[in-house]
Design a protein that fits this description.
Elements lengths: L1 H14 L5 E5 L5 E8 L3 E7 L2 E8 L4 E9 L3 E2 L3 H8 L11 E12 L2 E11 L2 E17 L4 E13 L12 E14 L2
Antiparallel strand pairs: 1-4, 1-11, 2-3, 2-11, 3-6, 4-5, 5-7, 7-8, 8-9, 9-10, 10-11
Length: 187
Amino acid sequence: MEFRLLALFTAAVAAWPAAALEYVIDPAHTYAHFAVDHLGFSTQSGRFNRSSGTLDFDPETGRGEVYIRIDATSLDTGLALRDEVLRGPDWFNATTFPDIFFRSRQLIFDNGRLTAVEGTLALLGNERPVRLDIQRFKCGFNLANRKRGCGADATTTFRRSDFGLNNGVPFVGDEVRLHIQVEAYTP
């Protein structure tokens, strides 16, 4: 009798519509990478080593919210002297503006597949609309950490001068390619 009740309860729970879940960004698996032209000779790249945020997502309605905080002081290009300059007042001004934010309430789907997230990027105290194109998006149960999670690879391109980051233009490229890999899990 107990087994039958448990089976009925399990079936009923499985049939309930999925509700929006809050996922917390996993800083060990979330990085924002950037690439920019350097004097026409090469493409220089770097990443930000620390990030945080949340994802609220309801797979039934396709609605959700994304909030990502990128720590500008964690900028890392692989060369300490260059990183110090880039964190300084002429570039990212990380002392005054230690955070870069992306916020969105607009998830774009095509045939049930998440293809983009439209939101606002805040950099150096300036906010501009930005569309992140999604190359991969998956939600499910992670067997390694035994939590429900979602992950994505997202990219965008923007002009840094639109945010007041004008130093070096046009010698150092104005167009920045940004790639964010993110994993988020239920608390």
